[in-house]
Amino acid sequence: MVSGAVEWMIRRGIGTPYWSKHLPSIRRTGDLIFGFVSRRRRAVLPLLALELCYHMVAVLETWHAIDLITGARPRLLTAFVLEYVNRSITVAFQFVPMWLGVDEAKYKPGDQRVGPRLGGGRQPCSRQERPGSSSDGDRPGLARHQRASRPTNAPNRLPR
Hints:
- Helices cover 59% and strands 0% of the residues.
- It has helices at residues 2-12, 16-39, 41-70, 76-93, 98-104, 114-117.
- It starts with a helix and ends in a 43-residue tail after the last helix.
- The relative contact order is 0.04.
């Protein structure tokens, strides 16, 4: 279905270089989907039912959140539209690399940008500024997900 639409666009001269390059992978994806359907016919309906339940619960969650925030019960259509917009924005911005937003808010000592004030972007900007590292690279910096060490006055155990 999608490959047919792409072939139609190629015949009409719409984005021919782009679509000609990507048409084989689009066809492979379609073959994978239809191959799954032909091999696992009994799994298709439960899979579609789970997908439908997932979206229904997401709309109900949005409805409940609006109800809690505003104190007024919204119409189900309002919750559906808001959830649709939320999903559309999420899908649209997945094409933008996540590091773009993170890198723009990185913290430098003395920096007055918005990121550090809001508590975001607390990572040092360069290897030289990273705790535990030096400019000549003789000591490795902290591992990316390693937690900072406990302050010396902090108790060693949680209270019981």
